[in-house]
Design brief:
26% strand, alpha+beta, 250 residues, 4-stranded antiparallel sheet, globular
């Protein structure tokens, strides 16, 4: 069932998103060669506690961490590790914040130290693809319009779009209907309506789009060891178009 959120629910989500954005800004300051992703996970736990929030994905279907930390060829749901990050790595930090019942979800790919030009292009194209998808998230458009905008842009830039994982509705639990694919045809799929809250979170690969699962049952990685980047925003569809809860560049 797809629910349209009330003004109160939207305000709760925005309050959670404000904490999430502040946390991502602090993560950007501490990510550098030598830090481990388990240290980042511990930092996030402390940051959220200090702000009266909790990591919603910890314990979700048995997931054991406050964040997902997906490194280089890991597409999503990477486990934090004690291995220090190295110069030239790229790492995606994904988290869901619960503040007084309001949820906020956002992933961001970070460059660790100095990365090569193709890595920079991968990150920039993935971020731009996210915003091209968001532009289509307005009343009267369809879900396919979002995916089509992302896919056509990313593929024209020489990258591929992961199809095994999608955006989703959110609230009151992490994953709600509808699914939001990052590929597809225009004018296809469910019609978007005012009050719907969704995530758009394209995962873009250097090589093939297909994924394979690690033995931990959570982490997906590319089949050819190409790197993957991801950017995710949570939005509410309004009569004036999409409002981004998790915007970091306000």
């Amino acid at each position: 069932m797809i629910s349209r959120k009330s003004k109160r629910e939207v305000e709760q989500m925005q309050a959670a998103a404000d904490v999430l954005v502040a946390c991502h800004r602090e993560i950007a300051k501490i990510i550098k060669p030598g830090i481990s992703t388990i240290e980042i996970d511990n930092f996030v736990e402390g940051f959220l506690e200090k702000h009266g929030a909790t990591p919603e994905q910890k314990g979700y279907n048995g997931y054991p961490y406050a964040i997902c930390a997906s490194l280089n060829d890991e597409i999503c749901h990477g486990f934090p590790s004690e291995k220090p990050l190295e110069d030239g790595d790229i790492v995606t930090i994904d988290m869901v914040v619960n503040l007084n019942g309001g949820l906020a979800d956002s992933a961001w790919t970070y460059a660790v130290g100095n990365i090569d030009e193709k890595g920079k292009r991968l990150i920039n194209v993935t971020k731009e693809a996210l915003y091209k998808g968001i532009e289509q998230a307005k009343p009267g458009n369809r879900i396919g319009d979002i995916g089509h905008a992302i896919q056509t842009y990313a593929e024209a830039e020489g990258f591929s779009v992961v199809r095994d994982f999608t955006g989703h509705g959110i609230g009151p639990t992490i994953h709600e209907d509808p699914h939001i694919p990052h590929y597809g045809l225009p004018n296809k799929g469910l019609r978007l309506k005012e009050g719907m809250v969704i995530t758009i979170e394209p995962m873009i690969n250097e090589g093939a789009w297909q994924s394979k699962m690690d033995d931990n049952g959570w982490t997906a990685r590319t089949i050819d060891k190409g790197r993957s980047a991801q950017f995710e925003h949570q939005i509410v569809i309004t009569e004036n178009g999409p409002h981004i809860f998790t915007e970091q560049d306000k």
